[in-house]
Write a structure and sequence with these properties.
Blueprint lengths: L3 E2 L6 E5 L7 H13 L3 E3 L15 H13 L3 E6 L10 H4 L11 E3 L4 H11 L3 E3 L3 H4 L6 H11 L5 E5 L2 E2 L2 H4 L2 E11 H5 L13 E8 L3 H14 L7 E8 L10 H11 L4 E3 L12 E3 L2 E6 L4 E5 L2 E2 L3
Parallel strand pairs: 1-16, 2-3, 2-4, 4-5, 5-6, 9-10, 10-11, 11-12
Antiparallel strand pairs: 6-13, 7-15, 8-12, 9-14, 14-15
Helix pairs in contact: 9-10
């Protein structure tokens, strides 16, 4: 298992748009933040040229992703936005030789399909973190910006998530569970089932989040995972934010769907990681070693995925 090298001031970082587009204002705001960190953002001027839904044509998005991955001059890859479209790039990645240089790859939501591929096929650790459009948003909390910055520059060697709430009997028992971290957006991961890059959780700790999915939809997705055997051998599941999804009467059945899943499985299931699509989007390292402590004082400690540049 490799690690990416921590960033230094003056490093070139590539910006790509595998999914949806954004406004030029959002792009410039995100670039401004990266420059304030001492980084040199690089992107193509024609990156945002929507075909009808996505930031650009499939061919364009594939080419820019491959170029960023293979570049010997850039040290990290930031994704512009989530939404939809990244899954279509995965089959093309399977045709190339894994680059020798492992780079921190940052994004969330729809970017989950790329995180899943990079770890399962190449053994790359990645960062489930804010996309560029969110990074430059004035409403984004300084805490999440600083947290990502500290991880990328090696000031934080690990991520700790404390105050987690156990959702089943296995999680209420005091104990320790270790395993590599996988996961991301629940809906996107479900879309991998049955493909050559189907989500795998054996011997791993799974992080899950989602947005605007109603309770019945989440319950159905978990049923699909269950019937597909996707959680067979899983060490534990930790839920991030599940935002939106209210019924017509304004009430939400999302938490009941999460609890039903937790009570069905034998491994620990907990919630409380402030990451996903909520007010705070903390960075969750993926493809890294982690230790989950269960019981009354549940907490989860994950390696950052980075290493020095010596």
């Amino acid at each position: 298992m490799g690690k990416w090298r921590i960033l230094e001031r003056g490093d070139v970082v590539d910006i790509i748009a595998p999914s949806w587009s954004s406004t030029s204002t959002e792009l410039r705001a995100g670039i401004k933040i990266l420059k304030s960190w001492g980084l040199k953002p690089r992107y193509s001027e024609d990156m945002i040229s929507p075909d009808f839904v996505y930031a650009n044509s499939l061919e364009y998005r594939v080419e820019k992703l491959k170029k960023a991955l293979k570049s010997k001059t850039s040290k990290a890859i930031f994704t512009l936005r989530g939404g939809s479209g990244a899954q279509a790039l995965v089959p093309y990645l399977d045709k190339i030789t894994p680059p020798e240089q492992i780079k921190p790859f940052i994004g969330l939501s729809d970017i989950t399909s790329l995180h899943n591929f990079f770890f399962q096929e190449w053994g790359w650790p990645t960062l489930h973190g804010v996309v560029l459009t969110r990074l430059g948003n004035k409403r984004t909390l300084m805490r999440e910006k600083r947290e990502l910055q500290y991880i990328l520059f090696g000031k934080s060697k690990e991520q700790e998530f404390s105050g987690l709430k156990p959702l089943n009997s296995a999680a209420k028992k005091s104990g320790r569970v270790s395993g590599k971290v996988v996961g991301g957006n629940l809906k996107v991961l479900e879309a991998t089932l049955g493909t050559a890059w189907s989500f795998q959780s054996r011997n791993r700790i799974v992080f899950l989040e989602d947005v605007n999915e109603r309770g019945y939809s989440i319950d159905r997705m978990f049923e699909h995972f269950y019937q597909a055997g996707a959680f067979r051998g899983c060490r534990a599941v930790v839920f991030g934010d599940f935002v939106g999804g209210a019924e017509k009467d304004g009430k939400s059945l999302v938490q009941k769907a999460l609890v039903r899943f937790a009570e069905r499985v034998k491994f620990p299931v907990l919630k409380g990681v402030a990451a996903g699509h909520g007010r705070l989007q903390r960075t969750v390292p993926l493809g890294v070693s982690s230790v989950l402590s269960t019981g009354k004082k549940s907490k989860w400690i994950c390696d950052s995925g980075g290493k020095g540049r010596g």
